[in-house]
Amino acid sequence: MNRREHLLTILGEEGVEVSQRCSKALRFGLEEIQPGQELTNAQRIRGEYLDMFAVMEMLIEEGLIAPISGHDLQAIRAKKAKVEKFLAYSRDCGTLT
Fold it and tell me: CA-to-CA distance for 89 and 97, rounded, in angstroms?
């Protein structure tokens, strides 16, 4: 396995860790502190996101992924609008309170 493959593997693992921590927060709450831990689930989600962000930056620095541009900011705004649209739809369906 080369460096690129390792970085991509790590990025995927970090994404899974964000997902896993979100699941814990949904089950036990954002403010819950898991026995034997010092941080809340909210703090741990943020930490996992930062880990993922760091690996993404490494991929960008190596030229393997394009850096964030003005066009990306537009895509981010579009994604936020899409999420809001589907949140409203979920509310209309009665699955979101």
Answer: 11
CA distance 14 to 8: 10
* pLDDT tens digit at each of 97 positions of the chain: 999 999 999 999 999 999 999 999 999 999 999 999 999 999 999 999 999 999 999 999 999 999 999 899 999 999 999 999 999 999 999 999 9
Q: Which two tokens stand for residue 52?
A: 């993922």
Tell me how far apart the alpha carbons of residues 41 and 8 are, in angstroms, rounded to a whole number.
25
The Cα 40–Cα 24 span in angstroms is 10
> φ and ψ at 33, to 5 degrees?
-110, 115
**CB–CB of 34/24 below 8 Å?**
yes
Which amino acid does the sequence have at 71?
H
